[in-house]
Amino acid sequence: MTLGTINSKPKPVNLADVVEKARDTFNCGVTRPIEWRRQQLKNLLRLYTENQNAMIAALQKDLRRSKMEAVLLETDYLINDLKNTLNNLDEWVKPERPSKGFVNMLDDVVIYNDPYGVVLVIGAWNYPLQLLLLPMAGAIAAGNVVIVKPSELAVACAQFIAEMIPKYLDNDAVIVVEGGPEETTELLKQRFDYIFYTGGTNVGKIVYEAATKYLTPVTLELGGKSPVYIDSTVDIRVTAKRVLWGKFINAGQTCIAPDYVLCTKEVQDKFIEAARDVLKEWYGDEAQKSPDLCRIINSRHYSRLQALVDACKSKIAIGGGYDPKERFIEPTIVANVTGGEKIMEDEIFGPILPIVPVENAYEAIKFINAREHPLVLYVFSNQRNIHTLFNEQTRSGSLCVNDTIMFYSVETLPFGGVGNSGMGAYHGKATFDTFTHKKSCLIKNFAVIGEKLGSMRYPPYNDSNMSR
Ligand code: NAD
């Protein structure tokens, strides 16, 4: 079912009724059988495979995303995740049988994997398909009814989702609500059994506050400034490639993009030299003409980024160009930045990479720890003790050594932030677990010996029965 329309003002719908109807569906029990879940996931897989070109086209329209990035970072990613879920679903739903003590040796001790009920998934615009549909699939796999709210800023992708979901999935159990802050505010007034939000930290706080009304559990997948530390022991050209790829895919509009680099002045010089070659190889002499660079999602974000480029004009080592007509920001590297500058205040979320010179790893750690916990910390070094140092002395959602972004696709690694970068995690089995309540259950019987074993609990109490 789809409610509202993204192009014009959304049709007024009574969201209280929508959620109530969703609850009726859950209470009827249709979403619980594993056969239903499997069928919905197979339908979703069909949606992905039959409409891959339409998905690529929608991403091209919203972000001028190249086919390669669309396939690698969204469509194939979704397909692989879904196949993994389908392959493991039988195993994941099975009740767990934990170990038990002597007193319970005759009893059943079980942990059931219960769906929460009616789940709300709110998506962001930067990976508008993946960030909404992947948690949605996990919620279905876990047996929930799901209401999804795509980001209104990725118009073509939101429209695709609103058109396709009702064609492939059970209309009573998977519901698309379109709209922006107004509709989301209204949705958040309703009672949900779980809320999964992806987006900025400020709205994350609004979601968290709304969830407290009904003590609804939440996952908040937020952002922040993810640092990169580079030392002198690395292969600088490979490092430049890995850092720049992570930074410039989707024009830097990636929650786990390297936000800034920390390194010594010597490493900074070598990195910039290598970066100049790499960027020329990738995007040619006129980056704006490259088909491989995305555009900024809208004029508000474009103006914010243009102002950042202007603010650090005197320190630009590479790039610095922009074009408001195309919402194009050239891949830009800024050297000799200090912690107090404007560009170091908020998450950049665009193709601008500042480098902050530090004396050594200890100074880098101090710099990182003086700020909010990042979503991910990247460390480039050939020295194990440096990896250990950063691992033990900093806190971040994830840690990735000698690469960027790639940790995100390891399906056995739960992905999520800590502190201001979020709470909760998903991917692979962690997605299923996120939407699953672990219901503990003790099943006793009436066997005489069992009753005898436990009879010391009954009054009148006798000290001699107590074990010491
Ligand atoms: P966005 O503007 O698309 O907003 C996210 C969602 O919140 C949308 O569905 C939107 O409709 C809703 N929303 C916006 N304002 C609201 C309000 N006042 N009240 C209620 N709902 C509201 O996305 P964004 O926040 O611009 O996304 C960018 C941020 O998301 C970055 O900080 C990025 O790091 C973060 N992000 C995190 C992850 C992650 O997995 N951790 C992934 C992508 C993006």
UniProtKB/TrEMBL annotation:
Keywords: Membrane, NAD, Oxidoreductase, Transmembrane, Transmembrane helix
UniProt KW 4Fe-4S keyword: no
GO cellular component: cytoplasm
InterPro entries reported for this sequence: Ald_DH_CS_CYS (IPR016160), Ald_DH_CS_GLU (IPR029510), Aldehyde_DH_dom (IPR015590), Aldehyde_DH_NAD(P) (IPR012394)
Keyword Transferase included in the entry's annotation: no
Molecular function GO labels: aldehyde dehydrogenase (NAD+) activity
Residues forming the catalytic site: E221
Start and end residues of each Aldehyde dehydrogenase domain: 16-440
Leader sequence residues: none
One record GO biological process: aldehyde metabolic process
Similarity-based family: Belongs to the aldehyde dehydrogenase family.
Protein name per the record: Aldehyde dehydrogenase
Organism: Parnassius apollo (Apollo butterfly)
